[in-house]
Amino acid sequence: MNFSAAEDAAMAQALALALNGPRGINPQVGAVILSPAGDVLATGWHRGSGTPHAEVDALSKLTREQTRGATAVVTLEPCNHTGRTGPCALALIEAGITRVIYATSDPGAVSGGGAERLRGAGVDVERGLLEDEALAVIDSWLTHTRLGRPHVTVKWAQTLDGRAAAADGTSQWITGQVARADVHRRRAEADAIVAGIGTILRDDAALTARDGDELLSQQPQPVVVGRREVPLSARVRQHPRELIQIREHDPATILADLHERGIHRVFIEGGPTVASAFLQAGLVDELLVYVAPALLGGPRVALDDIGITTMADIMRFAQPEITLLGDDILIRVTREASTDGSD
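Above: the chain's sequence. Below: its structure in token form.
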């Protein structure tokens, strides 16, 4: 694949534009239209269900004369179906676009196939520019599309020796303020935050996203799993969003319930029992492990039994990312299966 410097820059811009769009039932997509000389003519992004897709948003700012012979740089393969809006592949063809570059393919059985339609109309089509970055933007949507369930992130904080609490059960605070601020930012990006009833009863967790003592404008839906009742006095009942209690322990059933409610991105922060159950079920797409340079010893480990008894069955993750957060370290890993639809 041979991409120009202008096309590289346009894709980076399109990825940044994509983040302006809301997470939800549709992917976040950005688009940039380049002139034959490589100048940016227009930009666009998808603003949510029922609104013009990114390509059409960008094209709407230009005349037919401006788009003739231009290049469209898009973060996701242009769609090839008519839903609440028309097919973007057709809109690009009718606009006279002669070259389309997209980062990654649309896996949808109905929406996919735009590249083939474009090529059939004589458009020069290239795929794969900044694909890893594009996949990171739409990872939750891809999980939902390919697997029919929410994207699942499991988070925990631990010491160097893998302890999540002291022997007496106290756990506040293992990590410092910088790491905790990072957690709250990531909570705000999720559709729902899930904790087990044991964590609610033990820690009186609020399940909010905060900046210090102030609530962030974006709040995840609080979800408590387990059969025991959430006390009327529990802080989670004062959450700005309505509490969902799922009286189940089975991870697949829990995710099916959340999927039915339109939740696409789940942040699990519910202690070793819940984290271990989702890992054992093979339903975790991303791990966020915050490690403090400290030791506790004792029995309170970060994970319980996840069903592995031999090294042959070790659970592997991919693409490790290491971030320093004050004195602490964040290790982010993703499950290899989360990108190919298999467990």
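The CA atoms of residues 180 and 279 lie 23 Å apart.
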